[in-house]
Design brief:
The complex is a heterotrimer of chains A (about 280), B (about 325) and C (about 425). Helix content of chain A is about 75%, strand content about 0%. Chain A has twelve helices and one strand; from the N terminus they run H-H-H-H-H-H-H-H-H-H-H-H-E. In chain A, helix 8 packs antiparallel against helix 9 and helix 9 runs antiparallel to helix 12. By secondary structure, chain B is mostly helical. In chain B, about 70% of the residues lie in helices and about 5% in strands. In chain B, strand 2 and strand 3 form a beta hairpin. Chain C is α/β, with parallel strands linked by helices. Chain C contains 18 helices and twelve strands. In chain C, strands 1, 2, 3, 6, 7, 10, 11 and 12 form an eight-stranded mixed beta sheet that branches. In chain C, helix 8 crosses helix 9. The longest helix of chain C is centred in the first third of the chain and has 16 residues. Classes of the chains: A mainly alpha (about 280), B mainly alpha (about 325), C alpha/beta (about 425). Chains in contact: A-B, A-C, B-C.
Chain lengths: ~280, ~325, ~425
């Protein structure tokens, strides 16, 4: 009994810790800008300063913000797709084939996952401006791919190891080549793993900030996190808290939707030997 | 901001065909074809830029005065390494790393225990934990920054021992604490999910056996559960620590590096992106890269020592 | 630098551009190059100040040979500079027109990022203080669009109570003493660790006949002059205010907005601030300011640093430059002249409180209607006799170096000028990290 009470308490604490800032930013998004900048309604909830959907409509009317949502969705989805395709090929080789250089691939992946992103942005900017990728979608898709590949490769090789090896052998005995065995047997079995890797990769790309602020300069390619940090409000001397909160809530919706739909898969992916943070 | 992953790759899993056979050669060729695209993409964006940074770091070079560019040898490195600002920022960065990882370890473990034991409302718990994990770090930074400001935040009102007018962003210590809170909130779920994986590997039989032997809950935790999770804990610590060492987003959003909250990543960013000092910025980028390697090396060393101790017990 | 207004007027245009954007996104790259008929589109990067007026100007200055589209930059001057500089460093051919803070002009011109302008864009008609900001290396690289300056805003009743005669030029000493003599009265300045703090320091140093650096055009080899009598006079003013009870409690984080509410709270304040203040205090239900209070608002020339020398009010504003890599440089130069014409300057002054850069625009009847004659005269004279900040390709470095030593204002004393001179020299030589 005592243990049960402890558990209920624990669950409540976990939820409070995780959801309190979310509730706060939601509450902020319903407060009027005046009340926030003048500090007239300092409490947690929007009591006298409730403005309904005003902040949301104002944010949605902002062309730069809409463009950044479009940029983020497009860039993250393309980067995820390409990254997962390349990672699937590589992870299959790592999990199932014997070849020299396997250690090298894993080391490269490990090194890149540890790489301090900030140390790359200046030379990358120089390279991008020379070849014309600066402030374009591919200019962000390529670095996102590089930095999500390690994660995707490791997640996928962990999944691939779970796949019964004999089935591929059986297929090969039936006359299939390695390639056919891969395509006909492994791909369907690996699909759930690929899917999980895709979600984790998407989270990474959606979250990126350093590349977003350094490799773009206009709404051509600027993703949401960078757009949020440059958000222009009506008062140049103060951050437009209410508008920013509304924009932040909109930017969080895709994350919440993915989490609600696929939470089991994400946890499985994170705890199955490959983890991302 | 950045990705870390942990894995226990069983590189040698699967069968090993006899070397030199046709089959082995065919496999090697296939593997090369499968692996090459990923390796190329990973190297394009990292190897070239870091080599270029190394080259530029020997120059005095400002983007706005390209004609003044000159070779200065190791001068940028000497300036950086003898500058008190560099060492202050290294110190602040290490502080961020140590404090956030330590606190995340404790909170993350409690979360993992709750998730491991709980039999009801699993979906709800999973969802709650995954939201901070998936949320944009910049959003977390904004949420906490607004929460801490005295004009419109709730933190001062909720903490009984804090003055209503206390300005968290006016001085180094409180500002660093505010940044740490955002960092910890955002990344604890990652830590707890890693630890959950470790918890799942601790055999229930051993815990039962300890219980039968009359071990208290506390003893079971320290003598049975934690030692058996050691590998998972160390791996979690390694990757979170490397991530925390590169802290950038929260600082940018919450203080923009003011009042001494700047990390080494932020210093590098400022030199290259804000000051356009590509030479000095590149030298700092190289130093940042080397210091990450050093941190990784130190933790891995520690990790091995611990494994050896674990085996010795 | 000054107030921004809401931007509903952008919406219609925004919709048009989203359609354009959506089409271009398919290619991965958005080129603001050509519309359907092959008519060039000039992209004009604007800072978020008077956006509605600028949109109207863009519309008006579009011709049957080209269209002008505005593109909004971030709020802070630092962010604006980074965004523009990175595009220009990337040799972007769609950066046609841009609004430049005066201090960006030398940096950008020196890097070869700005197209040279015809000589006749700056004439006798252009006010001296702002005309100076568009010259680099004996050439002209931008056209002034508006000229901003600071004056001393104060409560008439407060000056009276303190016994300060505002009809004659006042010094900082007098202003601080006057405010200290009335309980609750304060002096408002900008002393956060940001660009406007350098604006203040620069005005103080110049007001005592000195310079932060001289021979600034020599770049890294400029001579650092802040360690001088003038530098110490400037430090003395800051030290005096920081230690006086007239200092506002948020002095070390104060900006153009933080000192505004103090004007009509309690006995009021003396405040050095930009021209936008006048429109900002116009009585309205939102700001709660009454006609009676508005009547009590006074203005005077920027205070002197030393009693026997004219003050040098700060000069700000916006210059319009043309990108050196623009595909349509000729069109852009032509458009820049239209954008900065008298009609535009008058519209900006009347509708957005952004004051003109030419004498002709100052004499327009619309301005006389919108502003009291003595205030107009004060603004104009301030810009004309104002002092620019150091013109250097390393301005950003100089500014940050000054900020890092002179901030916080509480720490400023007579040793500060020497300290900052040493640090600035080391930074310029690449011997210290900034």
């Amino acid at each position: 009994m005592k243990q049960k009470i402890g558990l209920v308490l624990g669950v409540a604490l976990v939820m409070l810790w995780c959801l309190l800032p979310i509730a706060w930013i939601l509450s902020l998004s319903f407060k009027s800008q005046d009340a926030v900048s003048n500090g007239t309604d300092p409490g947690f909830l929007p009591l006298d300063s409730f403005t309904g959907w005003d902040n949301y409509t104002a944010v949605w009317d902002d062309e730069q913000f809409r463009r950044s949502i479009l940029n983020s969705l497009g860039i993250s989805l393309i980067a995820t797709l390409l990254s997962v395709i390349l990672a699937t090929l590589a992870a299959y080789a790592i999990a199932r084939l014997e070849f020299r250089g396997k250690k090298f691939v894993l080391t490269v992946a490990l090194a890149i996952a540890m790489f301090p992103v900030v140390s790359l942005v200046s030379p990358l900017f120089d390279l991008w401006r020379t070849i014309g990728l600066y402030d374009t979608w591919p200019g962000l898709i390529i670095p996102y791919m590089s930095f999500t590949l390690p994660l995707a490769i490791w997640t996928l090789s962990a999944f691939f190891r779970e796949i019964p090896w004999e089935m591929e052998q059986a297929a090969q005995v039936d006359g299939a080549t390695s390639w056919q065995a891969f395509r006909k047997v492994i791909v369907p079995l690996a699909a759930p793993g690929v899917f999980t890797a895709a979600i984790l990769t998407f989270f990474f790309a959606w979250n990126d900030f350093v590349f977003g602020i350094t490799l773009t300069s206009t709404e051509n390619a600027r993703p949401i996190p960078a757009a949020l940090s440059f958000f222009v409000g009506p008062d140049p001397f103060q951050r437009p808290a209410g508008l920013l909160a509304a924009a932040a809530v909109i930017a969080t919706i895709p994350i919440v939707v993915i989490v609600l739909l696929f939470q089991r898969k994400i946890v499985a992916g994170l705890t199955s030997g490959a983890v991302k943070g | 901001m950045s990705s870390t992953y942990v894995a226990t790759p069983e590189v040698d899993a699967g069968k090993t065909p006899p070397a030199g056979s046709d089959r082995s050669r065919a496999e090697g060729r296939l593997a090369a074809k499968l692996v090459a695209p990923a390796v190329i993409v990973m190297l394009v964006v990292t190897a070239f830029p870091i080599l270029r940074a190394l080259w530029l770091s020997f120059y005095s070079y400002s983007l706005t005065a390209p004609d003044d560019r000159e070779f200065v040898g190791l001068s940028n490195y000497i300036t950086a390494l003898t500058d008190s600002l560099f060492w202050r920022d290294i110190g602040v960065t290490v502080l961020y790393m140590l404090v956030t990882v330590a606190i995340e370890l404790v909170i993350g473990f409690i979360f993992a225990m709750v998730m491991h034991r709980v039999i009801f409302a699993r979906g709800v718990i999973r969802t709650s934990i995954l939201i901070p994990y998936g949320i944009i770090t910049v959003v977390s930074g904004f949420a906490w920054q607004f929460a801490f400001t005295y004009q419109n935040g709730f933190v001062n009102g909720w903490l009984p021992f804090i003055d209503e007018q206390f300005n968290w962003f006016g001085d180094t210590t409180p500002a660093v604490i505010a940044i740490m809170v955002s960092e910890i909130w955002k990344t604890t779920p990652f830590m707890s999910l890693l630890l959950l994986a470790g918890l799942a590997q601790v055999s229930e039989d051993m815990i039962e056996a300890a219980k039968v032997d009359g071990a208290t809950w506390w003893q079971r935790l320290w003598k049975v559960i934690l030692p058996n999770m050691r590998a998972a804990i160390m791996v979690a610590v390694l990757f979170r620590a490397l991530d925390a060492y590169r802290i950038f987003d929260n600082i940018y959003v919450m203080t923009a590096g003011a009042v001494g909250t700047e990390s080494i990543s932020f210093l590098t960013y400022r030199q290259t992106i804000e000051q356009f000092q590509l030479g000095m910025g590149s030298a700092l980028a190289v130093l940042l890269f080397l210091s990450v390697l050093l941190v990784a090396f130190l933790i891995v060393k520690l990790f091995r020592v611990d494994l050896a101790q674990a085996r010795g017990e | 630098m000054s107030r921004t207004s809401a931007r509903p007027a952008r919406r219609a245009r925004a919709r048009r551009r989203v359609a354009l954007a959506a089409a271009a996104v398919l290619g991965g790259t958005l080129l603001a190059a050509c519309s359907e008929e092959g008519k060039p589109v000039l992209t004009w990067y604007i800072n978020p100040d008077g956006v509605e007026v600028l949109d109207v100007i863009a519309e008006r200055c579009s011709t049957d040979r080209y269209d002008i589209e505005t593109e909004l930059l971030p709020t802070g001057a630092t962010d604006q500079r980074i965004q523009l500089a990175r595009r220009l460093a990337a040799e972007d051919d769609t950066t046609d027109l841009m609004n430049l803070d005066p201090v960006f002009v030398p940096e950008f011109a020196n890097a070869g990022w700005l197209e040279e302008m015809p000589d006749d864009v700056v004439t006798e008609d252009t006010l001296d203080g702002i005309a100076e900001t568009v010259r680099w290396d004996d050439r002209i690289y931008a056209i002034p669009l508006w000229a901003n300056t600071q004056v001393l805003w104060y409560r008439k009743s407060l000056a009276k109570e303190a016994g300060l005669d505002m009809s004659r030029p006042v010094t900082w000493d007098q202003v601080i003493d006057a405010a200290s003599s009335v309980p609750g009265a304060t002096v408002g300045v900008q002393a956060n660790k940001y660009e406007a703090y350098v604006v203040w320091i620069n005005a103080l140093v110049q007001g005592a006949g000195g310079e932060i650096i001289s021979d600034a055009e020599a770049g890294k080899d400029a001579s650092v002059d802040i360690d001088s009598e003038a530098g110490r006079a400037a430090a003395a003013v800051i030290e005096k205010l920081a230690k006086s009870r007239a200092a506002q409690s948020d002095l070390s984080v104060s900006n153009e907005g933080t000192s505004l509410p103090a004007m009509f709270a309690g006995p009021g304040e003396f405040m050095t601030n930009w021209t936008f203040v006048y429109k900002n205090y116009a009585p309205s239900p939102e700001n709660g300011i009454t006609e009676e209070q508005y009547e009590d608002l006074g203005w005077a020339r920027y205070p002197r640093t030393v009693p026997d020398m004219e003050s040098r009010p700060p000069v700000g504003g916006i210059d319009v430059g043309v990108g050196a890599f623009s595909k349509h440089r000729d069109f852009a130069v032509e458009a820049a002249q239209c954008i900065t014409d008298t009609d535009s300057q008058v519209a900006l002054a009347v509708d957005a409180g952004l004051m003109p850069a030419t004498a002709t625009a100052y004499e327009a009847p619309e301005l006389a209607e919108a502003y009291p004659p003595d205030l107009l005269e004060l603004f104009r004279e301030s810009v004309d006799s104002g002092g620019p900040r150091p013109k250097s390709a390393y301005y950003a470095t100089i500014s940050s170096a000054i900020q890092s030593v002179w901030h916080s204002p509480d720490s400023v004393d007579e040793s500060t000028p020497k300290e900052s001179a040493d640090f600035l020299a080391e930074v310029l030589e690449g011997k210290a990290l900034l």
